[in-house]
Amino acid sequence: MARIETLPVRIGESLVIGGGHPVVVQTMCNTHTSDVEGTVAQCLELAAAGAQLVRITVPGRQDVPCVAEIKARLRAAGCGVPLVADIHFSSETAIAVAPLVEKVRINPGNFHPDHGQAREQFARFLKVCKQHGTAVRVGLNHGSLGRYITDRYGNTPQAMALAAMEWLEMCIEAEFYQVVVSLKASNTVVMVQAYRELARRMQERGAVFPMHLGVTEAGGGDSGRIKSCVGIATLLQEGIGDTIRVSLTEPPVNELPVAQYIAQQAAPTLQPPVADATSPFQGECALHSVPGGDSTAAVSSGNLADVPSRRLTAPSLRSNANQAPSPDKAAMLDAAIEWGPKLLKREIDEIPAEAGLSEYLRDEIMQAARR
What we know:
Layout: E1 9-11, E2 15-17, E3 24-28, H1 36-48, E4 53-57, H2 64-76, E5 83-86, H3 91-97, E6 103-106, H4 115-132, E7 135-141, H5 146-152, H6 157-173, E8 179-184, H7 188-205, E9 212-213, H8 221-237, E10 243-244, H9 255-266, E11 286-289, E12 295-298, E13 309-310, H10 327-344, H11 359-368
Parallel strand pairs: 3-4, 3-10, 4-5, 5-6, 6-7, 7-8, 9-10
Antiparallel strand pairs: 1-2, 11-12, 11-13
Helix pairs in contact: 1-2, 3-4, 6-7, 7-8, 8-9, 8-10, 8-11, 9-10, 10-11
């Protein structure tokens, strides 16, 4: 199945999510941002292991100067990996940190306790992001939808999609399209249903923003890897998903080989992005050719159909012998990628014995597809 065509979102100077570009693999530091040295060291480790995007938590305004210092040290070390600031419970922190990073993740469920003020603060936030070329992820989590969302829409996959659309409409009203969206859940059934519903609604709206995939609280060990494979691979095989993160209760560097493997094995063959001259949402990001020289990155508000452009290719996924899954682990991931989607799509009720899997692996995959 072909990938769903999504808007291109430019992250920093050399990375694009969506728009037909390769699936981007990202991860998140587990250090406290106030630990500048520890966070810098971990970012360097993750970038060296192939992370194309690294998220760091920013709990409050007091941590914003630390973000600036972390980025400065990374750039001084020659590391250009884009940074994402993860924000919860503080719209003012989101506004303050937006000029310093390539992307900010906000959670509509806790952006501001009052929904009216949340809309006002979000408009302010988008204005700052537009001024500084900062991308945004509207990231809902099934476990933290907040009272406004649950009171208005409920607590179902469909409710998550409706809530996301409300915030995406705010972005469209502000003419801000550098947006990625996610609807994460710890239950793979809920997660897959939510993303399918969101993709359908965005297509009906005529503005399909790139989708960030992940299973929250997936766990660790085999269970966490299998659960992530089942949820993420199911959607990628349906053409849904532009960037992924495997969330494990382990050092974040351990997430990368799994995410890289899923992206390589489950994502459909990519086709070069084609500009739609009739879409009002085109023209947000391209790599424009300049006369007599190389192509250079530039944000465009014009019609891309009339502008020569080439793909902004994401950095290649690194996978050396130490990082790549062992043959046994690769076989486990392959089994989860093959059988998990069939279970979630209800093509089968259980994995047949003829599949040749151990009872342990069959049980793990079936549990991952039912919770």
